[in-house]
Amino acid sequence: MARYILQRLLLSLPVLLLVVTLSFIIFYVIPGDPALLMVSPDASYAEVEALRRALGLTDPLYVQYFRYLGEVVRLDFGSSLRTGLPVLEEIQVRYPNTFLLAGAGMLIAVVLGLAAGLISAARHNTWLDRLLTLVVLVGVSTPVFWLGFILMLIFSATLLWLPSGGTGTIAHLILPAATLGLHSTADIARVTRASMLEVLRQDYIRTARAKGVREFLVLNWHGLRNALIPIVTMIGIRFGTLLGGVVLVENVFAWPGIGRLMVDALRVRDYPVVHGAALLLAVTVVVLNLLVDLSYARLDPRVRFD
Amino acid sequence: MGGHVGPVGTAPAGRRWVRLVRKWMASAILLWVCCAVLLIIVLSAVFAPWVAPHDPLMPDILRSMEPPQPGYWLGTDQLGRDVLSRLIWGARPSLFLSFAGVGLGLLVGGAIGVAAGYMGGRVDLVVMRLVDALMAFPGLVLAIAVVSAIGTGVGGIIVAVGVYSVPVFARVARAAVLGIKDAEYVQAARAVGASDTRIVTRHVLPNIMAPVLVQFTMRISTAILVASGLGFLGLGVQPPAPEWGAMLSDARSLVWSAPWAMIYPGLAILVVTLAVNIIGDILRDMLDPRLRD
């Protein structure tokens, strides 16, 4: 077990390095001259040149790259051009909000997705199965920001049950989290259904049924436990998409998280903040995927001996 | 059904056959309905100048925020512009950007995947790890990063939408190549002295098209969502040009006063994405028998 964990940890280091390298390429190599992106359009040549020197853009690319690696390791993303505060500080304030929203959204997605997938598999090829499959397909096709507006229209504007934006109480969290969760439900439901159908064909399920185990237990104990690996894999994959969706949902509901920070920063060409936020979200995905990998060993003892 | 003519055991098999045909018919009908819906939307986008009842850009303050009515079937927005006409014109960038972006992703990702799968060894290892790293960026975050680097012009948006599909195509193409690399017909081609270029273009590419095309369809729906997401964030097609995501963004303050301006653009995205998703699902079931129930 310890060896497996160590192996996975070591394997994720190169991926992290590549993610950092990729963000260096996107933010420092592709734009040609990042200094030109950061100054206001009417800046003088001397100002641009000063910024270029301050950012070290006059050095050769490989020097910039290794300096960049050093900065990232020390979590030094520079200062916001707008507020002058360190980027890390700006992000730190908002990261918990994003994490809370993403976590709550994922919880809703997992609960609904598992339920819908289980019901679909248990009632395979009935009208209920088909209805759920259709609902799931509609769910995956709905633009998440539009879903947010629709929920807002129903629960804030018409029923006056929930606030339409802001933060502070549980009530503020419900609509954004539901928007995010409903959008991610579909894939989890699909995989749950497919994986359960596969498992329900196995001999041990027939054995369980034959010895008179209640159907509820057959599904949830004998079935679901063995169907979990693909489902957990899908949850890991969904996290990436979910964190992309967070950016949109935060903007719909004026939720003070990293996604909103990033888009606001981009509008005023505050590139250090955009860069820090994007890199942090990517690293979050890598870490979450690592946790998913580690959970395999807990879910399925066979994995440890591979 | 004629089950009584043959041995007793053929009756269920016969019924299963009927069920399969019925299922095929049902999915065929669904397939055609979805294709028809898409075709109507594409055609009305292509012929927008003739189909759209009003000018999509001309403001008419006297008609601001009017509910749906004859002449203005989907109502007007805060500037009095006809929502239906803007939807029809807005289909152009939404569809074009998605198809161009996924096409770009297909070319780049497909080439990477084929190269990695065919060459194997160290190339495969290095290239695929880079692809993994690309996948770590949440799609929309990657798109935003690319737009911030290249800009919000048409080219920038296409790259932003396409980059997101590169890892997916690379993986699918690589897996497909690995599956047929050692097939007998490839070995035969090599045995008669065909060059690598010839083997790849003549024998490998045609045989990996099925999964790649299925993926192309699936990615179109994601691309539409990403492109409209960028538009919604103000990082895509710039106003006043009509684009579905940007229309939704314009209408965000109208949720209370003129919800139609917000409802229909989203519905348009939903309908197109749903149709593409259903077509993709059906294609996958047809081309990949292993996934059939």
Write the layout of secondary structure elements.
The complex is a heterodimer of chains A (306) and B (293).
Chain A: H1 2-29, H2 34-38, H3 45-55, H4 61-73, H5 87-122, H6 127-141, H7 144-158, H8 170-200, H9 203-210, H10 215-252, H11 258-267, H12 271-299
Helix pairs in contact in A: 1-4, 1-12, 5-6, 5-8, 5-10, 5-12, 6-8, 7-8, 7-10, 8-10, 9-10, 10-11, 10-12, 11-12
Chain B: H1 10-46, H2 48-51, H3 83-119, H4 121-136, H5 139-150, H6 154-163, H7 166-180, H8 184-191, H9 196-232, H10 244-250, H11 260-287
Task: Jot down its keywords.
heterodimer, A: 306 residues, mainly alpha, B: 293 residues, globular, disordered N terminus
In words, what does this structure look like?
The complex is a heterodimer of chains A (306) and B (293). Chain A is mostly helical and 306 residues long. Chain A has helices at residues 2-29, 34-38, 45-55, 61-73, 87-122, 127-141, 144-158, 170-200, 203-210, 215-252, 258-267, 271-299. In chain A, helix 9 (203-210) crosses helix 10. In chain B, helix 9 (196-232) runs parallel beside helix 10. The chains are: A mainly alpha (306), B mainly alpha (293).
